[in-house]
Specification:
The protein is an alpha+beta fold and 697 residues long. Strands 27-26-25-24-23-32-31-28 form an eight-stranded parallel beta sheet. A six-stranded antiparallel beta sheet has the order 3-2-4-10-7-8, with no helix packed on it. Helix 2 packs across helix 3 and helix 7 packs parallel to helix 8.
Length: 697
């Protein structure tokens, strides 16, 4: 077994009882002109000049090559099929190859595939020479990527969004493996919760020469089996569950569905997992299991140092999901990338919600649109069983649409067609048609607002959510700002959930930490908002917008802990913050008098008071200090806070301690004697008064 990504790569369609990884070292040859032929590369006397480690793209350090702007590359490997597979069909699987692959086995061309993010397979049984074979793969990864799906991979000529694009990941970038199966086999397994959430509906598709009379048996978690026959190669079976346990972030319970297909060709066995959960839209709210869901999301673009689009190991997915949770997020928006299925497997079991979306193209042409749309069906087929996926995305900010969607009926038709295609395949999840900018047909109205200051940010959000403006300003360059219509037809956005699905500000990590606190808390002032997605979880190459660095180490956010900002219960302070470390400036009387409100997203109402605690100079409030403050607090009338309803305003009055020019005022939300939320205000004396005081001493 290879030590390079050795885990079974397809947990959503598990045939791991009979598989063999092909990850590891392959022979590799560059072909700069794209003129090499399989005949010359397969010649016995041909010396291959290099080796590459699969599944790492040829640009990456981990591949052992680090070759950039190569358009054509060839892979070769000799394989040996296990003897115990005799009499079965042998299938060669590729998780993903960017962008186009042609495959030969023992000199026979077995097939080709285009699309750098979707899986493909070839039955190679009839090409085998006994138990051995030589696999030859030719990959084309065009430098000009504008007409192909490529997401955030850089193109030459450049995309219009080149400033936020990264090093390409070309060639084989997900796992390669062999599986054995009978000639008549299970080809697809789609799982969905029953309408009443008391069972699982399994839709099974089979293929092969002996479907007539084949017997299909299904069971859940090893329970009572249900046996049926196939009708034209398909079956739809309801699997009841006694005492059903719903899947949620708080309790990510999974059920395993096992499928056995018996035919004269032999027995095929596959398995998959899913959860019992329901995602619906009710007016302006998103519901999960009929309870209101508030999205506290973060952008995750799926890049790693040394390995590009490919995770260095399986633990890397777990690490990123755990980092998101530690920062207080309940959803990850996997951005412009169909991620490795192992990521969704871990999201399912860890209870992290996922917004999933395909990769984008760079221009609006018939070929580009067709390639974009070709991802939709494979995305749903591969990822639809995962309960963690609660939102499907499509286009992003008109990338691949050449802008001006409101002014072009053809572009509107493309957006609508993609939306309708996705909804026809899966109506159980909300779909976003054109994330962040002008919407044509969508279940959620999301928007992207970036601003470098809390005050500017608050004004733009107020215009959208309170004044219900039909458009908002978008900066497309240093000297270029345009107004983007929220709805392409200029109509109202009401009646559907609103989300701010990208935001952030600040050119340093301290500034970004400060903006994370103030901009996120500003969103909590708007009760009807359904959530947000912060940009972003970690830095990538030149893009330094992460809470974490590219190596996933924690950055200095100026003491602005993201988990407190993204908490279930937060405190909103009614001030116009001035600068990091200096939120509020006070006069010579040192009086702090601020209005506050509480936002609570729990399942039931609470009664709470706010306890002020001064820390050291811009220091933390440790647990002991918080406990002393709570124990010594004077009686106060508690404020009742209902879920998803901003509390009535009240005031906190205190005084900057003598002898210091700046300090952090921690504000603890206390309910039933426990601290249930906390915020702070960095307070400093007016600069002119401070200078005068220093001069006097």
């Amino acid at each position: 077994m290879s030590l390079v990504r050795p885990e079974y790569p397809r947990p959503h369609f598990d045939r791991s009882h009979t598989w063999l990884t092909l990850n590891g070292s392959w022979e590799f040859a560059t072909d700069p002109a794209g003129t090499a032929t399989p005949e010359e590369l397969s010649h016995e006397d041909r010396a291959w000049p290099a080796r590459i480690t699969v599944p790492f793209a040829w640009e990456t350090e981990a591949s052992g090559l680090g070759v950039h702007w190569l358009e054509y590359g060839w892979y070769r490997r000799t394989i040996t099929v296990p003897e115990e597979w005799s009499g079965q069909r042998v299938v060669l699987h590729f998780g993903a190859v960017h962008h186009s692959a042609v495959v030969w086995v023992n000199g026979t061309r077995v097939g080709e595939h285009e699309g750098g993010y979707t899986p493909f397979e070839f039955d190679i049984t009839d090409t085998l020479d006994g138990l051995s074979a030589t696999v030859l793969v030719r990959v084309w990864a065009p430098v000009d990527k504008r007409e192909i799906v490529h997401g955030k991979q850089r193109s030459i000529p450049r995309d219009d969004y080149d400033s936020c694009a990264f090093t390409p990941s070309s060639g084989i970038w997900q796992s390669v493996w062999l599986e054995a199966r009978p000639a008549t086999y299970v080809s697809a397994l789609a799982l969905a919760p029953s309408d009443a959430l008391d069972g699982i509906v399994a839709s099974v598709t089979a293929a092969g020469p002996s479907l007539s009379g084949a017997r299909l048996t299904l069971s859940v978690d090893g329970g009572r089996p249900v046996t049926t026959e196939l009708d034209d190669g398909t079956a739809r079976v309801h699997l009841p569950i006694r005492d059903p346990r719903l899947w949620s972030p708080a309790d990510p319970h999974l059920y395993t569905v096992a499928v056995t297909l018996e035919s004269p060709d032999g027995t095929d066995r596959v398995a998959s997992q899913t959860g019992l959960r329901r995602v619906t839209v009710d007016g302006e709210h998103i519901l999960l299991n009929d309870e209101r869901l508030y999205v506290r999301g973060v952008l995750d673009q799926g890049y790693w140092p040394r390995t590009g689009l490919t995770a260095p190991d399986d633990q890397a997915f777990v690490t990123d999901l755990e980092l998101a949770r530690e920062a207080g997020f309940n959803l990850v928006r996997k951005h412009l990338k169909l991620e490795d299925p192992r990521f969704l497997h871990h999201a399912d079991r860890l209870g992290m919600l996922v917004w999933a979306e395909p990769a984008s193209t760079g221009v609006f042409t018939p070929a580009a649109v067709a390639r974009f749309e070709a991802q939709i069906e494979p995305m749903v087929r591969r990822d639809g069983n995962h309960p963690s996926v609660v939102i499907w995305g499509l286009y992003n900010e008109e990338w691949g649409l050449d802008w001006d969607v409101p002014g072009d009926p053809d572009k509107q038709a493309a957006v609508r067609r993609a939306y309708e295609s996705l909804k026809s395949l899966d109506s159980s999840r909300p779909v976003v048609d054109n994330s962040g900018w002008s919407h044509v047909a969508t279940d959620l109205v999301d928007w992207h607002i970036y601003d470098e200051t809390p005050a500017g940010w608050a004004a733009k959000v107020h215009a959208l959510l309170t004044e219900r403006k039909p458009a908002f300003p978008v900066g497309l360059g240093p000297e270029m700002t345009v107004d983007k219509l929220l709805m392409a037809d200029g109509g109202p956005s009401s009646g559907r959930p609103n989300l701010n699905s990208e935001f952030g500000g600040g050119w340093t990590s301290v500034n970004r930490g400060w903006n994370l606190r103030w901009q996120t808390l500003e969103l909590r002032r708007h009760d009807d908002l359904s959530g947000y997605v912060w940009t972003e979880l970690y830095d990538i190459e030149h893009e330094m917008a992460g809470i974490y660095a590219f190596d996933r180490s924690r950055k200095d956010g100026g003491g602005n802990a993201p988990d407190l900002v993204n908490a279930e219960t937060v405190l909103l302070v009614d001030i116009d913050p001035q600068a990091p470390g200096r939120d509020l400036v006070v006069g010579d009387d040192r009086t702090v008098d601020v209005g506050v409100r509480i936002s609570h997203h729990g399942s039931s109402a609470i009664e709470a008071v706010v306890v002020p605690v001064w820390g050291a100079v811009l220091g933390d409030c440790d647990a002991a200090a918080a406990s002393r403050a709570v124990g010594a607090m004077s009686p106060a009338d508690p404020v009742k806070v209902h879920p998803f309803l901003l509390s009535a305003p009240f005031r906190v009055v205190d005084r900057l301690p003598d002898g210091v020019r700046a300090a952090r005022l921690h504000l603890l939300i206390v309910s039933a004697g426990e601290v249930v939320g906390r915020s702070f205000v960095d307070v400093g004396i007016d600069a002119a008064l401070d200078a005068a005081a220093r001069a006097a001493t």
